[in-house]
Design a protein that fits this description.
Helix 1 runs antiparallel to helix 3. It contains three helices and no strands. The protein is rod-shaped and about 75 Å long.
């Protein structure tokens, strides 16, 4: 289930990134003075799209950290291999 959550978060990142790019293109097409990315964030639609992408990135980071923790815990619990030649 954890891997599925990571895959979902990855898909969300891709979708929200596309939504951000589309919003940026549509909202700035008739506003050539909004070339600076920081200035573009004054447009609500663009700011919300970027916020959604960043939220998805944070979810991905949390799920990936959890997976890493569980993998490390599983490695620590494995019995040590017997010495070679025994």
């Amino acid at each position: 289930m954890l891997v599925e959550q990571i895959e979902i978060a990855q898909a969300e990142i891709v979708l929200y990134r596309a939504a951000y790019e589309r919003a940026t293109e549509e909202e700035t097409a008739d506003r050539p003075w909004l070339r600076d990315p920081v200035e573009r964030l004054t447009i609500t639609r663009i700011a919300r799209a970027l916020s959604a992408e960043l939220d998805a990135l944070e979810r991905f980071r949390l799920w990936a950290a959890e997976l890493h923790y569980l993998q490390e815990e599983a490695r620590a619990r494995r019995p040590c291999a017997p010495p070679a030649g025994s």
